[in-house]
Amino acid sequence: MLKEAIYHRPKNNYAYAYNRKTLHIRLQTKKGDLKNVTLIHGDPYAWEEDAWQYEKKPMKKNGSDELFDYWTVTLEPPYRRLRYSFLVDDGKEQAVYTEKGFFEEVPDDDTAYHFCFPFLNEADVFTAPGWVKDTIWYQIFPERFANGDPSLNPEGTLPWASEDPKPDSFFGGDFQGVIDHLDHLEELGINGLYFTPIFKAYSNHKYDTIDYMEIDPQFGDKETFRTLVQECHKRGIRVMLDAVFNHSGYYFPPFQDVLEKGKASDYYRWFHLWEDQVKTEPAPNYDAFAFVPQMPKLNTEHPEVKRYLLDVARYWVEEFDIDGWRLDVANEVDHAFWRDFRRTVKKAKPDAYILGEIWHDSMPWLQGDQFDAVMNYPFTNAVLKFFNHELSVEDFQNQITTVQYMYPQNVNEVSFNLLDSHDTKRILTYTDEDKAAVKLMYLFQLSFEGAPCIYYGDEIGMTGGDDPGCRKCMVWDEDQQDLEMFEHVKKLISFRKSEPAFGNEASIRFRPNQDILVYEKSTPSQTLLFLINTMDHSRKVSIEDYTEVLDQGENSRLEQNSATIAPNSYLILKK
How is domain 3-124 classified at the CATH fold level? Predict the structure, then answer.
């Protein structure tokens, strides 16, 4: 038994309240090391004859990655408090793992030996909006989706899709263009729109805000935006805006005042300035996003800055009934600000969704006091590499399992799972235009737990390299659209909505298979088996207990007690 690999922490993703009654307890052990794990648990105040009274409950090994096994148990402590430890067994040796180390027998003379979950306070339960679990997001870069009102075109606007985009290109996309194409989104099955920034800014991407309280005039006015939100809500589509609170734009009036007056400016402490006078060349002498002088970092610890930005957060929720905020560069803003931000937004709209842009392990932001979710780039990277033949089946399963156990289950259920975005290559370009690979990516994304997001145009086969190539104008000519891809994505979305085990009601459980990806998803009413073959030759798999096909890729088929999965194809079985 490798005791050094056995790990538990009575907090975060290892011990947490799933809801107001239920606790989830997890244990990490060396992969393949232990045969059984049993939870020893009891109320800390339950004593008889000077001995602590406890019960035992078997734990289940629910996942494994490259190095570790993950054991899980669910329980409902009657008094909402718990002391616990773990009986670990490798078939040769048994030990009791406690907060104070390993023992041969259960220490029952003092509960201080054991891990402690002091009390399940309802206020501490991570609670995200329930509607997010059933949401299919669609990301829109407003400048490139559709030009519905040419009278708003900024100076120098190019004819729609007349050339590939450059960093400073304008093509005239606006709110009216989105309104005009809501039928497209509704037909696809979308019920959540995520807009990159819409506020007044200098650039085409609008991440350099000039005025957080005003719509950029190239997109329309506030009444047009209000109409857009209302039209979305009529169709059951939620609306999420992008907040850039880490930094402002160069032309943000407070920063312009600092540029002019230096330390004498009333706004000097609104930013992280290093010297009395501000310099932008040859490099900024102030903190900025990366080293971009046009994006000075805001001092969110300053009371006036905090008040201003929280007013912004409240205003767009209360005045326009938006449903969520996506927070740009969220990991570089102080935690105290985000706690105040959450209180402000949730007071204005209790079921608003708060999504942070963080590309790494984000547990510090996902404890119920800051964000509801983060953009799940560890998921993204694993999916891209596997379906582009850069990972083996085993390595992919390991990476996805690691993603699953990074966070509590109730966090995973609302995680924002994307395949690409305005910051990355489009998936069809990433795969060298391998459409079969992209279809399989969508199958995995849309059958995974969390809230999937589709980047505009991917559903009709758009291509594009890194920024600015990934920001091409949306293709609206059906003759130039990949309608087969559209129908494939539409079908998968419909399965997610109609089949209980397809979406968030069930987590993926991988089956060992060295050749193809096999995973099962189960609810009390349904079990689905997914078989995905990314290789260039067919594979035959033994199948038991499945007699019904939910869906199949080209040339894949179910036979008696076996299934044949064609190259770059799939089979979904149902029981």
Answer: Immunoglobulin-like (2.60.40)
